[in-house]
Amino acid sequence: MKLTIERAALLKALGHVQSVVERRNTIPILSNVLLSAGQDQVAFSATDLDMEITDASPAQVDVPGQITAPAHTLYEIVRKLPEGADVSLSYTGEDPRLQVAAGRSRFNLPVLPAGDFPVMSAEGLGAATSIDTNDLIRLIDKTRFAISTEETRYYLNGLYLHAVVEEGQAKLRAVATDGRRLALAEMPAPEGFSGAPGVIIPRKTVGEARRLLDDGGETVVMGVSAQKVRFGVNHTQMTSKVIDGSFPPYERVIPRDNKRVMTLDNALFAAAVDRVATISTEQSRAVRLSIESGRMTLTVRNMDAGQAVEELEVDYEGEPFEIGFNARYILDVTTQIGGEIAEFRFPEHAGGATVLDPTLVLDPTDAGVQYVLMPLRA
Questions:
Q1: What is the residue-averaged pLDDT of the chain?
Q2: Domains of the chain by range and CATH?
Q3: What are phi and psi of 85, to 5 degrees?
Q4: pLDDT of residue 196
Q5: Burial bucket for residue 2 (CB in 10 Å: 0-12, 13-18, 19+)
Q6: pLDDT of residue 350
Q7: Smallest Cα–Cα separation from 335: which of 176, 134, 145?
């Protein structure tokens, strides 16, 4: 194998694929990137056995062939080469190393046979569907913060992407929850997606897909099956296994009859929560909200650090009540509000009662998102 490729093109392609490679691997071949030189281009592939990313770039190929080399090492070498350099990659078989050359720089990297590199099958993937890149970015960004990190409930360790039909309209919906908060975002279902199975996309795959979308064009091509999902962005394709499990019936926890409505300045609220939470305990991060007509009082008590109290004007008319939340969860939701105003909908309770039922948070500027926060009991 022998080829020459422009440094920027090589760096971009390696940047896409090497991110899937774990820093520590018990299987040596999984630390490598597969280089496949063909007619006028070179393809790159990396995998962790659950996810595979491939990319291709134009190159001057003198001798076609395949070999694998250490992914992170090769990426770091190319990253540190001068801009505009032409990079030569060659492997003859006589020397069991990949030779990397650019200008006066020479590197020799250990290799492993291309035949040992595992390839993920695309078998069973449904028909490809095109989705506007910005629409998919919105679905991911509005929901992924709520993905669970607890491995015990593995079926919550991903983003549930599925099609629903409401009032005769097909929608593509993304949902994430960790059992304490829930995030939902939806959009009109792209043509051809309404019949696709619902899938739970793993947290790592969601992160890698989001990175690819930043480098993509106007559309992303998706293929979905019960076992796999594929994202295609320009010359890059990412194929991933999905989580084998059933997402819980999340619709049951979304409040439908919360009639106590409060609106407030989202930025002022977020800043107030952040300030009073300074003295909260690291474990609970509890913030108590006392709400009455026109006013909210935020209180944090910590036996060791003291007490913090702050008042905020709100738009609310009704009986006073109290409710407690994890400050971090509140801040995560306020970060997703696109406009100046956030709307909170609380369940009905007797005057002065402490609310323990779920709270619905809405963004008046985006009717396609909903957030649910579970109150703290203490």
A1: 91
A2: 2-116 (3.10.150.10), 129-251 (3.10.150.10), 254-373 (3.10.150.10)
A3: -75, 150
A4: 77
A5: middle
A6: 45
A7: 145
Residue 182, C-beta contacts closer than 8 angstroms, at least 6 positions apart: 146, 175, 176, 250, 253, 254, 370, 371, 372
pLDDT in tens, 228-287: 999 999 889 999 999 999 999 999 999 998 989 999 999 999 999 999 998 877 666 889
> By C-alpha distance, which of 237, 153, 157, 139 is closest to 202?
157
**The CA-based dihedral angle spanning residues 103, 104, 110, 116, taken in that order and rounded to the nearest 10 degrees:** 10
- pLDDT score at 353: 58
Alpha helices in 122-196 (DSSP H): 133-141
pTM over 0.85: yes
CA distance 362 to 342: 6
Tens-digit pLDDT profile for residues 68-117 = 999 999 999 999 999 999 999 999 878 889 999 999 999 999 999 999 99
Q: Is the pLDDT of residue 185 over 90?
A: yes
For residue 60, with 0-12 CB atoms within 10 Å meaning exposed, 13-18 middle and 19 or more buried, which class applies? middle
Max CA pair span of the chain? 84
**Both tokens assigned to 12:** 């971009």
Query: Alpha-carbon torsion 267, 271, 272, 274, what sign?
Result: positive
Say which residues have a Cβ less than 8 Å from residue 231's Cβ, sequence separation at least 6. 209, 212, 220, 221, 222, 237, 238
Beta strands in 248-318 (DSSP E): 260-265, 286-292, 295-302, 306-313
Q: How far apart are CA 34 and CA 112, in angstroms?
A: 9
The predicted structure's pLDDT at residue 218:
87
